[in-house]
Amino acid sequence: MIDETRRAAAEHLALALTQSGMQRMASRVLAAFMFTDEPSLTAGDIAEELGASAGSLSGAIKLLMALGMIERVPVPGSRREHYRMRDMPWSELYTKQNAVIEHILQTTDRGIASVGDGPARRRLQHMRDFYTFLLAELPALLERFERERAD
């Protein structure tokens, strides 16, 4: 597993992720994947590393899989489920969030249709316009990021 210096850094990352809104256990599990040099981890490996029960990790693992951050991988000869962090999943995370943003846009449009002129309408329109702009700009931004990383 990881040494104490890396473990402390992993816990600091997990704390930062938690403070930004991610569930605490999901933050800790993600940090464990970020700091490991192992090709894959089992729930038991993660539980041992974090000092948590394997059962408490189930929801965090499911969340991270749903976000596209980690994936299940086959390990010949092993009867346990193995997981690994996907190869640099940050771009995919933001691409997957487009579905969330689309849902926000639809809900915001319904909100705009339900109110008359006034502050509420202006706030809702501003929110819609921001997310519309973000969705339009995000693909080019991600492409530019990948190009610059390749240089």
Low-confidence stretches: none
CATH class type of the largest domain: Mainly Alpha
CATH architecture assignment of the largest domain: Orthogonal Bundle
- Average pLDDT: 90
Helix content: over 70%
Number of helices: 6
Order of helices and strands: HHEHHEEHH
Q: Which strand-content bin applies to the residues?
A: 5-15%
Task: Label the overall shape.
Answer: elongated
User: Major β-sheet, in short?
Assistant: 3 strands, antiparallel
CATH topology of the largest domain, anyone? Arc Repressor Mutant, subunit A
Tell me the radius of gyration: 20 Å
Count of all domains: 2
Q: Strand tally, please? A: 3
Which sequence of strands runs across the widest sheet?
1-3-2
Q: Which structural class is indicated by helix and strand composition?
A: mainly alpha
**Distance between the terminal alpha carbons, to the nearest Å?**
33 Å
**CATH H-level superfamily title of the largest domain:** Winged helix-like DNA-binding domain superfamily/Winged helix DNA-binding domain
